[in-house]
Design brief:
- The protein has helices at residues 17-25, 44-48, 53-59, 75-82, 94-102, 138-148, 193-199, and strands at 13-15, 30-33, 40-41, 66-69, 87-91, 107-109, 122-127, 149-159, 166-175, 178-180, 183-188, 202-210, 213-220.
- It is of the alpha/beta class and 222 residues long.
- It has one domain (7-220): Rossmann fold (3-Layer(aba) Sandwich).
Amino acid sequence: MTVELTSSDEGLRDDSFSAVFSRALRGRPCTVVGVGTGPEPLPVASWVRTADDTDTAMLAHCVGPTLDIGCGPGRLTARLAELGHVVLGIDVVHEAVRQTRQRGVSAIVRDVFEMLPGEGRWHTALLADGNVGIGGDPVALLARVRQLLDPRGRVVVELSPPGVGLCTMWAELHCDGLRSRPFRWSLLGVDGVAEVAAAAGLAVLGTHCCADRWFAVLEGDR
């Protein structure tokens, strides 16, 4: 395991991912190390805002009761509710769930690999904002998500642009004098989704691009 560190990382105190991410959600500047060529700002501002037209275009592909996996501060969970969906947000970070609930929608603190309400009955699972990278193994994640869905259900998954394929790395968050423990993360591009989906027992129903954001709709490979 290697995470490229710089002299600016000296003096940072190690803490959990949840503790560091919570500070970022409360407005403290935060960078992610290990995902790009150098430290990059964590795009928290795009997560805490209200859902925009591009978000809504992606959410238009969600059908029926929807599970928002890695809901963060809940902008998409809230927009799904506004669109008339029964929706539940899940996140491992308490602060994220608190902020989602503040928007008036349901959310629980839960890991996607733990037992969840409505297993096998969700019509849509949403993996937005790069959350297909959770755990650093998109095949395992999508296979788990498939277990959560009704047999006729679908996954709406946001992707990286063409040319990324599949890449996995160790990353850290740096925020407010704290450094998260390294965590495994993946980037999955639109050019890599078909192979990954097939390995998880899913098929690509369609890929879409809206305002430079890419996403795909996956369904069970029947």
